[in-house]
Amino acid sequence: MGQGKEGQEGNGRKVRSCGLNFIDLMVRQGNIDNPPKTPLVPGFECSGIVEALGDSVKGYEIGDRVMAFVNYNAWAEVVCTPVEFVYKIPDDMSFSEAAAFPMNFVTAYMMLFEVANLREGMSVLVHSAGGGVGQAVAQLCSTVPNVTVFGTASTFKHEAIKGSMTHLFDRNADYVQEVKRISAEGVDIVLDCLCGDNTGKGLSLLKPLGTYILYGSSNMVTGETKSFFSFAKSWWQVEKVNPIKLYEENKVIAGFSLLNLLFKQGRAGLIRGVVDKLTELYNQKKIKPVVDSLWALEEVKEAMQRIHDRGNIGKLILDVEKTPTPLMANDSTETSEAGEEEEDHEGDSENKERMPFIQ
Predict the structure, then answer these.
(1) Which of 18, 71, 145, 201 could form a disulfide with 318 if both were Cys (CB 3.0 to 4.6 A apart)?
(2) Is-cis flag, bond preceding 39, omega within 30?
(3) Looking at residue 14, what DSSP letter applies?
(4) How would you class 263 by CB atoms within 10 Å of its CB: exposed for 0-12, middle for 13-18, buried for 19 or more?
(5) Spatial distance between the Cα atoms of 159 and 149, rounded to a whole number of angstroms
(6) Contacting residues for 346 by C-beta, under 8 A, at least 6 apart
(7) Where is the Enoyl reductase (ER) domain (predicted)?
(8) Is the torsion defined by CA of 228, 231, 237, 240 positive or negative?
(9) pTM of structure
(10) What is the pairing mode between strands 65-69 and 45-53?
(11) pLDDT at residue 199 in the model
């Protein structure tokens, strides 16, 4: 398999596992700018075994275990991508962990260390703390001494993830007052994947010289804003960011998109250096991808519904070699790797009110 996209030398792989991310749901709903014309194969990250190499590719051999970013087309049995987006998998890392590794950990690392300059003694607020990025943020924060991590998540996730957070709040609670009760000055870093009215809340929590980073808009696909127009309206209702106020309060507001950095802005070399650092941390057993569940490709509908409903703790993985799990009676959207029905989460009533993602 020769050339990758745009004439770059490619690396062809037999895929074993693929990552499922919120961006895939946004693609499914059409909530992104300039998506490729249909028909298209979704997916932006995968892991597998090298089956073929471009003529001038160096550093890889057929049979190597690798993980990669792909500009769409990752959810397939065989993919080809330019070699600059391909990385070798550590010996002790499984294919499912490798598919859960690039997007979440590179995003978390870039935001914490490249954008916000996390240092000893700082404090971080992260939303969706039980998700793949949230858990990666928590693990990376633990590699820096005396970092305080505040997290928001649905109540039913608290027992499973409380060990990774210093302080954990219900996602529907008034987390601003909760944080200020513990830290009157607020926090040094806010990582916001929700947007909407959380933007003003996040900025209000920043200490002087603090950094707010918007890296997603998951509310746009979970039924909390029912359409692009209601999403835009929610932004319009947010107090506008005033540059003079930022100046007076010594606050920083930033945005981060890993896929744009890779595929539109040509920073693959920077990302390779980050993957190398993360691989070293993995080999030192300081970080480890959290895999929520494995799904067959045929189960992508149910897997998307699970992430849409925020039912996952860690990353959902599409396993190319997995056979579909028989669905439980009366519940086609909440089966896990073991084929067990998820418990009904009392108190997380917001999930019950959301519109289904797949209709």
Answers:
(1) 18
(2) yes
(3) E
(4) buried
(5) 16
(6) none
(7) 2-318
(8) negative
(9) 0.84
(10) antiparallel
(11) 84
- CA torsion sign for 34, 37, 43, 45 is negative
What separation in angstroms does the CA of 186 have from each of 156, 298, 359? 26, 45, 41
Q: CA–CA separation, 186 vs 318, rounded Å?
A: 39
Amino acid at the residue 217: S
* CB neighbours of residue 359 within 10 Å: 4
Length, in residues, of the chain: 359
> What is the Cα–Cα distance from 206 to 188, expressed in whole angstroms?
6
- Give the DSSP per-residue string, 27-46: HHHT-SSSPPPSS----SEE
What CATH homologous superfamily does 11-319 map to?
Answer: NAD(P)-binding Rossmann-like Domain (3.40.50.720)
308 conformational bin, left if phi > 0, alpha if psi -120 to 50, beta if neither: alpha
CA angle (155 as vertex; 105, 233 as ends), nearest 5: 75
The type of residue at 74 is A
Contact 168, 129 (CB under 8 A): yes
Separation of alpha carbons 142 and 287, rounded Å: 9
Q: Output phi, psi for 291, to 5 deg.
A: -100, 120
Tokens of 293: 């569940």
The DSSP line for 91-154 is TT--HHHHHTSHHHHHHHHIIIIIIS---TT-EEEESSTTBHHHHHHHHHHTTSTT-EEEEEE-
pLDDT of the chain, 359 residues: tens digit per residue = 334 444 456 777 699 999 998 888 888 877 676 677 888 889 999 999 999 998 889 999 999 999 999 999 999 999 999 999 999 999 999 999 999 999 999 999 999 999 999 999 999 999 999 999 999 999 999 999 999 999 999 999 999 999 999 999 998 889 999 999 999 999 999 999 887 778 889 999 999 999 999 997 554 444 444 444 555 555 544 556 788 999 999 999 999 999 999 999 999 999 999 999 999 999 999 999 999 999 999 999 999 999 888 889 999 999 999 998 765 444 444 444 433 333 444 444 444 333 343 43
Beta-carbon-side half-sphere exposure of residue 193 (alpha carbons within 13 Å): 28
Q: 84 near 272, Cβ under 8 Å?
A: yes
pLDDT of res. 237: 46
Amino acid identity of residue 329, one-letter, is A
